[in-house]
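We now fix the convention by which a protein and its fold are recorded. Here is one such record, which you should read through line by line:

>
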Amino acid sequence: MTRVLSVASEAFPLVKTGGLADVVGALPAALAEHGVETTTLLPAYPSLAEVATGAKVVHRWRDLLGAEARLLAGTIAGHPLLMLDAPLLFARIGGLYDHADDWRRFAALGRAAADLASGVVKGRHFDILHAHDWQAAMGPAYLRYAPGPGPRARTVMTVHNIAFQGRFDAAVFAELGLPALAWAVDGVEYYGGVGFLKAGLEAADAITTVSPTYAAEIRDGRFGMGLEGLINVRRAVVSGIVNGIDPAIWNPQTDSALPRRYAATTLAGRAVNKRAVEKKFALDPGDGPIFTVISRLTWQKGMDVLAECLDDLVALGGRLALLGSGDAALEQAFLAAAARHPGRIGVTIGYDEPLSHLLQGGADAILIPSRFEPCGLTQLYGLAYGCVPVVARTGGLADTVIDANEAALAAGVATGFQLGEVGYNSLSHAIRRAIDAYADPAIWAAVQQNGMRADFSWRQSGRRYADLYASLEGQS
């Protein structure tokens, strides 16, 4: 059996700010059927107090980058969980990120991961250290430059979004406990500072992104965010594995958040959920399409362009139910649109997990005009729920949604609508195409059913990760 230490800053259902948590939370079960035992390592945030209470202490650090720390053993969804309990670092008021000492907090997580993956913690052995995003990226770097006394695990670095890199001032290097040779272009140094993600990408034995198209895109300066040169140098070990979704959580046939559950063969049941969406977002009742947005309201997500298109959407007979938060100016733009079009646009600022399920189960289409999207999960949920995705042709959106062009419709494979360059004209055109298709119930139902019948579970992706781990073990 392959033993993997999966290191991340969040994991559903214990702590979540975005899709990273869904992926990290789903991986243990996805890998188990392929003979992989996955232990998840998380910081012991205050929100994990219930899980941490009474947990077994399996290791202590007197000085983990300046903090006393304990390693606690528990479970997450029936799989092994380790929690790094360091109150000085993680017992914070406010969000998980954007603290002045994030460099110390997440370097400590990486140091703990490297200790676990190289024999420092008695009774704990791992074949693979799998680090997720910049918050865990120092794990491979510590294993490379300052490992423990035992055999080193092989390392995988997964990039969920290369735009978030963990870049810090050069002064922090002296506090990281790394040898001087780590301060190098092929080490942790990055444009005169310390780059956590860059360090992990340099040190890892294998690099993955969360879709094949994104793995190719980040070799280009338009998407690589300054790291495209490194990705090109290391391209032989870079691959893309599209994310999956957990059918135990995202399944319209069993979802308790839906007033009416349904399947691809009982799509009429969605009408009950549609009425619930109308009521929740104060939309005028009607038979016309409801578009939804479940997203961070940011430039990356193309929300500025969508805000420009809302008058067109309403004029074409569409309605919008939006759930999200982000840039203050964009929040105000959507609230202003709702005030301008009462009964046609409803906006809820924030995030609500059950409400996101209702929107997928009751809205007709989901808008995802991202300028770049490493994988995306909301379009996968939309496909599973018959909430037809309208997406930009980028990253995982391009890999998972088949455009309803004439040939795809004739072949019976269309699952959504794609737009090319993200701009006012292209997005308005895609919305118009979706509304025209909605006007033909047979075409719309076929597109919904195609998406619902596709397999975006973790089965195939879990196998690809298991194969990757096995290939690395074979190199040991």
